[in-house]
Amino acid sequence: MMNKKEQVRMMFDSIAYRYDLLNHLLSAGIDIYWRKKALKLSEIKSNDVLLDIACGTGDFAIESKRMGVQNIFAADFSFNMLTLFNKKSKWISGRNVRLVAEILPFKPNVFSKITVAFGVRNFYEIQTAFNSFYDVLRKDGKVIVLEFSMPKNIILKFIYRSYFKHILPIIGKIISKDKSAYTYLPDSVEEFDKNVDLEKIFYQAKFRSVEKHLLTFGLVQVVIATK
To answer: The whole model's pTM is what?
Structure first.
């Protein structure tokens, strides 16, 4: 039986070529705003050395480039995602890495920013990953996590859950031909929201400060941890 890591890798490989379209369609384009807002909250600077983890097809890294960041590295465990990223971002300096474990293959104190957009839910071992983030970050460096969350408002939560469980899988199956990927998404968001406290895990990884911002009525969270 495949473990979670292998299942998730195969799932993202299978939907890679429709990933951008589905992201923008299923979020009504708001995902573009979420990435921009997360980077602004992190006070991104042109001289940052940025590592984009679980980069997918590179939208977070590409938005960072538009904001002036020159030195960008990216990592993902889906080969198909990285292939598409390379086609979209030949103008990005740095290099892409196929990541196969939560322990990062970089020297200590290299990066000033690490970004993760909608990827932490898929980590096999979140604490190990955050410990590794701490090691490769410079002093005062920041990790910026953009992730789904469940709204606290009862009515919004009902609408959100209904959309995620009933409408999203149908659209996802029609466009990507892979229903499982868009059934996994709502299940993983709800499980993550119930069981994972990102702020606590960051503090356990020795980050000195953690701030959390809720966007779009609490549909997503931006968690920023500073070394």
So the answer is: 0.89
